[in-house]
Amino acid sequence: MEQKKGLFRFLLFPFTFVYGLVVFVRNRLFDYNILKSREFNIPIISVGNITVGGTGKTPHIEYLVKVLQKEFELAVLSRGYKRKSKGYLLAGENSTYAEIGDEPLQIKQKFPDIEVAVDRNRKHGIEQLFLENKDLQAILLDDAYQHRYVKPGLSILLIDFNFPISHDHLLPMGKLREPSSERKRADIIILTKTPADLKPIDRRIIDKTMKLYPYQTLYFTTVQYHEPVALSASNNFVPTTAWIKENEATLLLVTGIAQPEPLKKYLLNFTPNISTLYFTDHHEYTEKDLQKIKQTFQNLKGENKIIITTEKDAMRLNKFCDSEKDLIENMFFIPIEIKFLHDEGEMFNEHIIGYVRKNKRDSILYS
User: Fold this and answer.
1) Cα–Cα distance between 103 and 105 in angstroms, integer?
2) Which of 26, 44, 90, 124 would you label with 328, given CA atoms 20 to 30 Å apart?
3) Which DSSP state fits 114?
4) 274-278: strand order across its sheet
5) What DSSP line would sit under 68-99, residue for residue?
6) What would the mean pLDDT of 110-135 be, rounded to a whole number?
7) pLDDT at res. 223
8) Looking at the whole model, is its pTM more than 0.90?
9) How high is the pLDDT of residue 363?
10) Which residue has the higher pLDDT, 362 or 49?
11) 73: left (phi over 0), alpha (psi -120 to 50) or beta
């Protein structure tokens, strides 16, 4: 098996070399100001990663919204990955996954009072947001670490604790979008999905191995899972994790995310009876998929059985609430949020709020 992996990587090396050369040249063009990065006269916080998928951008964006929305007029701008629409679109009360993408839809449903918009061209998106609301005081850019045409005032880089970027390779050999050395552009680095019981001595070791620059700050976050929520608003029964454990319930875990295994590991705390149906990240569910889910669910043994999915998947599955009502009534999603380790949440909050307060200006674009 290892020999096959080695051969496969060897075959991919030429593609990785070409990709790496293109990324290197592009970054140097921005570094030497040949390609221009535009600044805006408003606090802009970028949240992104160097690896492909699965670092927890959405729950970290949601955390930032909670920190900032009480004091500032706030907007979130995303590209709206895998949406069917094009150009700039401002999310509304009746926006769908197909129009704006699953992650922006999730943010808008959780925080209906803030502006949520999508635009592949972040410069254009920021300009349009100002046209929509000239009183904006801060903008969060989702998944924008590689979008260098906009220069954020504060750049947050997320790195999965379980997949150190120093041990990875560029695409397609590995998962890196750009070399790990490009972490130098970040003001804040957050190691996500950290074990909740990480010891202070282990943290200090990681601090040293990260080789941070003087202007950078390192934080650690872990994932907190919450009680199941019904996919259907008309559902009268919502199982708790205590109910799952007490009844040794049988679960069908259905996901279309980059890394489903942590959720399965969490659910194993309550029952060993877990079957899985894994789809690709951001998978757009079809009627055929629903029939496959239904058939798999019907074949499960036991009286106490339910379907568990993620909150992001729920955004893509809720369009079947009417057509597949009987199946959807058995589906529940597990909300998640992030928590800072070692009581550093307040320090992070002060860091973010202090930046926005210090840089808050009139809503006028730089020329």
Assistant:
1) 5
2) 90
3) S
4) 229-230, 331-334, 305-310, 250-255, 274-278
5) HTTTS-EEEEE--TT-S--S-EE--TT--HHH
6) 96
7) 97
8) yes
9) 39
10) 49
11) beta
Crossing angle of the two packed helices 102-110 and 57-68, in degrees rounded to 10: 30
Q: What is the pLDDT of residues 73-121, one digit of tens each?
A: 999 999 999 999 999 999 999 999 999 999 999 999 999 999 999 999 9
| DSSP H or E stretch at residue 167 | none
Please give the pLDDT value at position 6.
62
The answer to whether 70 and 115 are in contact (CB under 8 A) is: no
Supply 252's token pair: 């069908």
Return the bridge partners of 158, or none: 49, 190
Query: In sequence order, which ranges of 83-177 are alpha helices (DSSP H)?
Result: 97-100, 102-110, 122-132
Alpha-carbon distance of 256 to 282, in angstroms, equals 6
CA distance 348 to 353: 9
Q: How confident is the model at residue 167 (pLDDT cuts 50, 70, 90)?
A: confident
What region, left, alpha or beta, does residue 20 occupy, with left being phi > 0 and alpha being psi -120 to 50 degrees? alpha
Please report how the helices 57-68 and 345-359 are oriented relative to each other, as an axis angle in degrees rounded to 10.
Answer: 60
Task: Provide DSSP, 12-61.
Answer: HHHHHHHHHHHHHHHHHHHHTTSSPPBP-SS-EEEEEESBSS-S-HHHHH
Left, alpha or beta for 168 (phi > 0: left; psi -120 to 50: alpha)? beta
Q: In a 3-state reduction of DSSP, which class is residue 141?
A: strand
Task: Find residue 309's DSSP bridge partners.
Answer: 333
Confidence at residue 367, expressed as pLDDT on a 0 to 100 scale: 37
Q: How many residues does this entry show for the chain?
A: 367
Average pLDDT over residues 215-243: 95
Q: Name the β-bridge partners of 160.
A: 192
Which helix (H) or strand (E) covers residue 331, if one does? Answer: strand 331-334
